[in-house]
Amino acid sequence: MLKCRTVWKKLAPLARASSTVCRQNVRRTGLTSSRIPACVPVAHMSTGPAGGGRENQLYILLVGAACVGGAIYTYRTVKGDSQRYQDRIEEISSRSYKRATAEPATPIQSEPSAVDATETEVILEPEPEAAPSLEPEAAPSLEPEAAPSLESEAAPSPEEPSPPAPDAEVAVPETTELPPGGPAPDSLKVPSHTPYLLIGGGTASFAAARSIRARDPGAKVLIVTDESDPPYMRPPLSKELWFSDDPSVTETLRFKQWNGKERSIYFQPPSFYINAEELNGAENGGVAVLTGKKVVHMDVRGNKIKLDDDTEISYDKCLIATGGVPRNLQVIERAGEEVMKKTTLFRKIEDFKSLDKVSRNVKSITIIGGGFLGSELACALGRRSTEYDLEVVQMFPEKGNMGKVLPEYLSNWTTEKVKSEGVKVISEALVKSVVCKDDKLEIKLKDGRLVKTDHIVAAVGLEPNVDLAKSAGLEVDSDFGGFRVNAELQARSNIWVAGDAACFYDIRLGRRRVEHHDHAVVSGRLAGENMTGANKPYWHQSMFWSDLGPDVGYEAIGIVDSSLPTVGVFAKATAKDTPKAATEKSGTGIRSESETEDTATSPVASLTLAPTVEQHQDEYGKGVIFYLRDKVVVGIILWNVFNRMPIARKIIKDGEEHADLNEVAKLFNIHDD
Amino acid sequence: MSYCKQEGKDRIIFVTKEDHEAPSNAELIADDPNDPYEEQGLILPNGDINWNCPCLGGMASGPCGSQFKEAFSCFHYSKEEVKGSECIDNFRNMQECMQRYPELYPQEEDKESSQAEASSSSVSAAPTEGSALPPETDSTPATSTSDSTSLIDNQTAS
């Protein structure tokens, strides 16, 4: 016992010296907690008491040997790295895009050996943990520090898995000879850094891109989407495109708006965007779209994402606008390949194209789902049913179309209208099983009814895409799904979420997630504003609309849930109150525009069906429906009453308790045109 | 004559035109024009141009965005007698840029641009520019470019 103490007293100064050095090194290495414990016991072990006075010399010898060994190792690795780096530069500049399979091997090899080395090492080489300090923002091509790879530029380099990253960061010395601007970014396919990164190429993303470009002059925005198309709008896919007279509509994707003007569903023609590789060099910035690439991993600490081809892109500000994927019925998924081949989950352009083709070639299509998409598609296909000898069936568990949105009396009325569009509606239908027999699908319902059809369209909801939540460590909302963000659409410091995937806090109406086009626009624009420093909450309430044939059209705003108590104020409709008439008058093409735009009117495209309005008693021709929550109006539907959305928006914004809603309804002048 | 009925939790009121003739006594809260949260129009309360106004369509964000911003800013702050007369170079730059992207900025804008200028009179004093300035000056929804871009714009006009 005492001997130990004397030995320790003798060794103390040496131990202190070595531990100081160790501590210094640790500080320099940027401090990974896992390594400190490794360090300290090592010190003790290497100075294990040998007894007597010779242990000093032994100790010095050991330490000396270790130092020399360490120095040699560092020298070799750094040299090797710089050599590899040079090779890499040459390789890239010679534009050969081959995957260096040797490279993953060497980093991985040297990494474990490096890890071993550190554990036995007392002193570490002057770790270019100088490297992290070089990182932060800097030039476009700088590799962020957490990159496990040895190469200092991102680009198409094979990456190691992230778990060894912390070790790799310290263990594997990165070359300190980072050239000022890195290799010329233009020669790379994809920029390794972008100030603004938008994940997802839909409506919200495009709105954000526009917002960013408007507010930050010369901004460089990179949109990454796994679709093969640049940003486009979705509503026409289930509405206008189906009513087009042009036989090549599936190719051109152009539709005629009600005001007669034609436009494409793409927000902008391809010339609007710049190429991804030119993004860094563009002096006035621009918007670049990278199609066909999926973001598979997000490193929030390192401010970067990884694509499915292993490219890494770092960002300053990131927007997640990944939208969602259509839900499928479990019975269909379990029914097997044959059934799946005859099922369409409708969302994208390719789904529209395939459904259009199918509708011309089959005898019967069944739409499962009675919400917005299902009903719109049913009406669109129903209109074709006479032309193509097509049977259109729509089935859903609710009592009537839009059963979850409209109060029962209106839902029933709407169902009648849908039926008059040529759709066979089967309500209160729960699908029990689907089988494929003799090349036809047989849908068996829970109550025993059997429906035979050729093709199924499943419109049963949207599953928000939160694949990145895990790797990014972002919160997912359990009630509404989607990424949980605050009132300013922010998930974390440099990350915002907008569109269908965002579960946000609405100051007026509480936490919600909205899956409508206008919301994507509003939230995308707001996210873009906040990414450029605006710090504004979600305030401007988005609206939505739907047309079910030429007679039934409505605009809505706020929380429109049929389980809430409602008050509806109706007047008799005249022939002037139809969706067509409304847009003709305002001269706009799409409903949400009519508030802001004042475009020139031009001769209207004629419709094939003339609106007929029956004149019997309970005719819900036009009116306003208020949805109440605790006596406060939280949602409003303008039923065949158009161009009054600003009033509705104001009422919701006020959030007041109104004693007599008939008085509030007067504000809308529903009897006027 | 109006009548009312109740179906479960839903109340339905049918009203005639006469019923709604009397002005409403529903009270709405007065709006604060300087509310920072609200969507702003083309001109902000402090006099600056709101480049993010949906009414501009994609003009400020497209490839010719910076040229457009320069030209329009110059015009907006111009104090000359003929407003914007010193901005000819800016507008020329803008036009040159736009000519490079005929798809985005279609050149048959003469009709619409005069309308455009008329509707942008809220920001300018002079109704139309002299022939000195190129036709495609201001941006507004009337131009067919922003027609393609305006579809995602939505805000309450202030």
Automatic annotation (TrEMBL), chain B:
GO cellular component, one term: mitochondrial intermembrane space
Molecular-function GO terms, alphabetical: protein-disulfide reductase activity
Biased composition (Low complexity): 115-150
Residue segments, region Disordered: 102-158
Segments forming domain CHCH: 64-100
Pfam families named in the record: CHCH
Entry keywords, A to Z: Disulfide bond, Mitochondrion, Oxidoreductase, Protein transport, Redox-active center, Translocation, Transport
Keyword Cell membrane: no
Main location class: mitochondrion
Subcellular location: Mitochondrion intermembrane space
GO BP terms: mitochondrial respiratory chain complex assembly; protein import into mitochondrial intermembrane space
InterPro entries in UniProt: CHCH, CHCHD4
Name this protein carries in UniProt: CHCH domain-containing protein
Organism from which the protein derives: Etheostoma spectabile
